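#random but structural
TW: two for the price of one
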Amino acid sequence: MDEKEVVLKALEQVDKWYVHLAGINGETLLIVSKKPVPESLVVEGKAYKVKYYDPDQYIEAIKRDENEFRGYRVYYFIKLYMRKVLEVLAQMELESMSPESGP
């Protein structure tokens, strides 16, 4: 079973209507949802740890560490929310490229 199938089958076990973004990195599923999800899910007999974020908390988490997004392969998202995530990442990239203002 490929990673995309694992993510989609895992989402069948949660209230998908509240999920904004979902991805995977090895044995860990990333689920960003308005409604809390279990700490682990079993897909096809294999247990996966779940890293859960509320949508607003997730934006703050990627501002602190962009690997909270880049470390996962995202297979499910709501377009409007993904646009917001990508805008935050683009802004962070621009800030890192701009010369620091000195005295």
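TW: number two ↓
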Amino acid sequence: VQSVAQQSYPPSSVVETLRAAPSRPYIVIARIHGQAPAGTPPAQVLAAIEHKAAALGADAVIVQDRSQQTAAALQFNPAGGSYQNTRAQIIPVYDATAIRWTAASDAKSAAEQ
């Protein structure tokens, strides 16, 4: 987590997940990176990001999916002396921007600073 805001906010009870920047005025309060081992459900990583954003007082997170796929492989099993196929898996990686809704005049003054 990289804090961007100069002030702190009370925790939020609900954090909205967005895939693109909203048209509604907002300020950026933090940048959050979430990553987990291959095979971890993406929803689990997104929930962790939302939980952290809520603790920071964010109203929403703008999420960018940077997930990667591992290649299928053939592995030797020395215990049985045979080969096993391992299937391709997704490594969930997300970069998120935690934001807080503002009035249009607040967003303009924050942008000028």
